[in-house]
Design a protein that fits this description.
- 67% of the residues lie in helices and 11% in strands.
- By secondary structure, the chain is mainly α.
- The chain folds into 2 domains: 1-38, no CATH class; 42-150, no CATH class.
- Helix 1 runs antiparallel to helix 3 (91-121) and helix 3 packs antiparallel against helix 4.
- The longest helix has 36 residues, at 42-77.
- The model has no long low-confidence stretch (mean pLDDT 84).
């Protein structure tokens, strides 16, 4: 029988953590004893870490491939005087696009680092989460800057 009707328990105690109130500890509860939010087990956190590593690698590789592809197109176009003039006129746009690609790649690198941390420790790292939120804000700013430059 559960100690409280609002707290479900399951099996033996294991390490769990609550992202909302930062509760960390071994418990058999499914919900946080402090705030009631669903607890994450270290196994669940490690699984999420693997997913973050895979998506981070994908994002970094995609941004690198796009950057190289666009760079090759620009290099080929620079040989033609007319295209070179058009590219020179679009310098701000190209720098904005590469800036967006750079921030997206940093977001992927942060995902790889954060996922590796989670796989190794079975815990989440709030500092890396805040870095992720800052990078998300930079991505939004870079997207808005790109739209502004295009207009």
């Amino acid at each position: 029988m559960n100690p409280s009707p609002n707290i479900a328990t399951v099996g033996p105690a294991e390490y769990k953590e609550c992202f909302k109130c930062s509760f960390r500890g071994e418990t058999a509860n499914l919900d946080c004893p402090e705030c009631g939010k669903r607890l994450r087990t270290s196994k669940n956190i490690r699984t999420r870490g693997v997913i973050q590593i895979v998506t981070g690698i994908f994002l970094v590789l995609m941004m690198a491939a796009l950057s190289i592809f666009i760079g090759v197109l620009v290099a080929k176009g620079a040989n033609d005087p007319e295209t070179a003039r058009k590219l020179a006129d679009q310098r701000t746009f190209m720098l904005t696009i590469y800036g967006l690609f750079g921030v997206l790649a940093l977001f992927g690198v942060n995902g790889i680092v954060m996922g590796t941390w989670q796989v190794v420790t079975g815990r989440r790292n709030k500092v890396l989460m805040w870095v992720m939120f800052v990078l998300l804000a930079l991505i939004l700013i870079a997207c808005l800057a790109t739209v502004y430059v295009v207009k």
